[in-house]
Prior knowledge:
three-stranded mixed β-sheet
Amino acid sequence: xxxxxxxxxxxxxxxxxxxxxxxxxxxxxxxxxxxxxxxxxxxxxxxxxxxxxxxxxxxxxxxxxxxxxxxxxxxxxxxxxxxxxxxxxxxxxxxxxxxxxxxxxxxxxxxxxxxxxxxxxxxxxxxxxxxxxxxxxxxxxxxxxxxxxxxxxxxxxxxxxxxxxxxxxxxxxxxxxxxxxxxxxxxxxxxxxxxxxxxxxxxxxxxxxxxxxxxxxxxxxxxxxxxxxxxxxxxxxxxxxxxxxxxxxxxxxxxxxxxxxxxxxxxxxxxxxxxxxxxxxxxxxxxxxxxxxxxxxxxxxxxxxxxxxxxxxxxxxxxxxxxxxxxxxxxxxxxxxxxxxxxxxxxxxxxxxxxxxxxxxxxxxxxxxxxxxxxxxxxxxxxxxxxxxxxxxxxxxxxxxxxxxxxxxxxxxxxxxxxxxxxxxxxxxxxxxxxxxxxxxxxxxxxxxxxxxxxxxxxxxxxxxxxxxxxxxxxxxxxxxxxxxxxxxxxxxxxxxxxxxxxxxxxxxxxxxxxxxx
Length: 518
């Protein structure tokens, strides 16, 4: 490697025996052995074409994104295909397949045996957590080289993943302008638009001509701006005035002013907007990039759609885990430690267990009415209420996440779910009653099976209605107290409805069967 070219990481060398993180070069035989071991791990996991397709679609490297800004030129002549890589060589796809099962040293080894360009693209496409772990593993000289592959917004994500004591050391590896950009980004919370944005965007003045703007964009493009498709027109105080597309600039008369070409009705977000709200703005307006401004309208940066795809995937994963009745893992499943898994799952299981203890308490109040005949239908009744509550909470939470339902819509949801819950309750209650009557006619439930069937039908109807209302309203209550509505998970709703279902069932049974069976 040339001495002057320090923007490209040197080949990651081997680890010393003293495990200090110092690295030296790999011998060809050792590289082949490492490649074979990683290939074997990848093959042992089998093939999942859908997962591979998702990775390729939603996790493009920053390098590939920039090199596809303009359409490819037609080929002058068909060129022969490059020779295929030998079978013993490790491919990025094989390393990606094996990645979750590799420890830190094996991951570094995997990068070392990849071709230089593939290794760089692979590193850029990693999650900030994985990038941070590798950077701390490398020796200081290599850290700087790998860090310089990342854009300022990506560096900020990485810095947020490392312990407080290591952040200053990583920031010191950057050049002064980049360090200033990263420090400005770190002032924002990780889940705000300011924490997602890139500060490298194309900017123009309204007094420029189209010809001057194109020449200026050419100079900016050499500074690795995020995109040249859209240029943002700013005044002297950096306030956003409008946006001009590259297409319009290229097609316009070179002497026409940018002020005449720009669109002034620009969709924008504030730097303090929550990332979920930003994702909804992208979806509502079908945009690829959105400008970020502060409270005074001054341009701060841009958020691109590839960043929002990561946000949407992260938020959906977090909500799905909370739906299951646990804390969000924040890391991939196989990357989470057993201790964290036990802590995050055990905490919610403990809360649910305490809730189920209330079920036993509720049954204690009705111990005199708990005859075997009534106990037969208890699981059927309370599970119907729990299932309906879980359905309602899932629908409302997802509608909230998509912006379809807002906090002030609780009354509309309540009225809607009353009718739906009543209809579902009557349907399930009727089916339960038919089952009781058929079995009762066969002699299973004694002489009062019709009355028992009516009791079960009314109880199922009441439990389903109450479960539906509880599941629909609990997310609104959590949002009111500034908690995450996703915490209204299916297990939590089911636990709450179990307690109330017992009370509903035995209250109806006491009214209907006193003097008959009680």
